[in-house]
Amino acid sequence: MAEHPFVGTWRLVAFESHTEDGRARLPYGKAAQGYLTYTVEGYMCVAIMDASRPRFADASDFVDGTPEEQIAAGKRYISYAGSYVIRDERVIVHHIEVSLFPNWVGSDQERLFEFDGNRLTLSTPPILIKGKQRTSHLVWERVQPEAASA
Hints:
Layout: E1 8-19, E2 24-25, E3 32-38, E4 43-50, H1 67-75, E5 77-86, E6 91-99, E7 108-116, E8 119-123, E9 127-129, E10 132-142
Antiparallel strand pairs: 1-2, 1-3, 1-10, 3-4, 4-5, 5-6, 6-7, 7-8, 8-10, 9-10
């Protein structure tokens, strides 16, 4: 696959979800953080979280949070990865191979895209979230490589 404008790493700038009647919400709160990476080989991965999620009480064990802590952490985090194809000048398709949300594994997730300088906006078609059809709009900013130290 030839290099194109998607290739690289992107940092989340904004994430809004809109209901059919136009109401907006912030699904991962005001402290949403995330990264999105596209490789020249045709693979992608994304991780988004609410940075204000509470930490586990016992910080010594990676997987030993209480069930309540694990549920709370998982509700404010999403991640998936797989291959991707650019369908046309407006649509990219993520072929999901691994995902925190198990129902997406093996699915194709279409995203409308738009570039504006060093920013990339990805928008979903309507997705059922909490019983309502919503569209999500994510703005990403290209991560600039750090200057090589001498």
